[in-house]
Amino acid sequence: SSELTQDPAVSVALGQTVRITCQGDSLRSYYASWYQQKPGQAPVLVIYGKNNRPSGIPDRFSGSSSGNTASLTITGAQAEDEADYYCNSRDSSGNRNWVFGGGTKLTVL
Amino acid sequence: EVQLVQSGAEVKKPGESLKISCKGSGYSFTSYWIGWVRQMPGKGLEWMGIIYPGDSDTRYSPSFQGQVTISADKSISTAYLQWSSLKASDTAMYYCASLLEWGDYNWFDPWGQGTLVTVSS
Fold this sequence. Notes:
The complex is a heterodimer. Chain A is built from no helices and ten strands. Chain A is mainly β. Chain A has strands at residues 5-6, 9-12, 18-23, 33-37, 44-47, 61-66, 69-74, 83-90, 98-100, 104-108. In chain A, strands 2, 4, 5, 8, 9 and 10 form a six-stranded mixed beta sheet that branches. Chain A is globular. In chain A, strand 6 (61-66) and strand 7 form a beta hairpin. Chain B contains no helices and eleven strands. Chain B has strands at 3-6, 10-12, 18-25, 34-39, 45-52, 57-60, 69-73, 78-83, 92-102, 105-111, 115-119. By secondary structure, chain B is mainly beta. In chain B, the strands form two sheets. In chain B, strands 2, 4, 5, 6, 9, 10 and 11 form a seven-stranded mixed beta sheet that branches. In chain B, strands 1-3-8-7 form a four-stranded antiparallel beta sheet, with no helix packed on it. Chain A binds chain B through residues 29-31, 33, 35, 37, 42-45, 48-50, 52, 54, 84, 86, 88, 90, 95-103, and chain B through 33, 35, 37, 44-47, 50, 59, 61-62, 95, 97, 100, 102, 104-114.
């Protein structure tokens, strides 16, 4: 399968914890990467691999994976975390193809 | 600093051709795959295809095969995305991004700033 499924929208109270999930068969073979996109900006990598953060990404962002589901967790969400979040994985077909999830709009209340 | 810089916004008419670019700097451009991603207005990210500038090995998403051409000129560290005959439905923001791989890990970083393509009569 070449699809990744995300909830379209999630909300979280300021300072609380939120988990954004991504489901797909390819996640049984490859780890997901996660991207944050704010309005009018290019996507930014926030998590890759098992649970790796690029330099400059706050440690409140973390990743996990189990079976066909990858998760992005924000522990102590801040107002500046309000954004669209996309998961991405290599397609498990064996070809060098990648696929994005449909994206999750995170609202911080 | 590793960065990808894309060409500027374009306004074209249906049926016209177009080639947009993505120039890499701060790293060995020929050693990493470069991917292209489409984002239609108000929509999500769609993976289009990828090229290895070292030998121009190119792979396309089935959704974009035959619709666009991806190429690269390693002598000037630049990747390209081109259309031979634009349609209104090609109106979108297009991003390039560098693919990094390590075992089962793969991720796109950095990303270019995006090129807005508007196709309208």
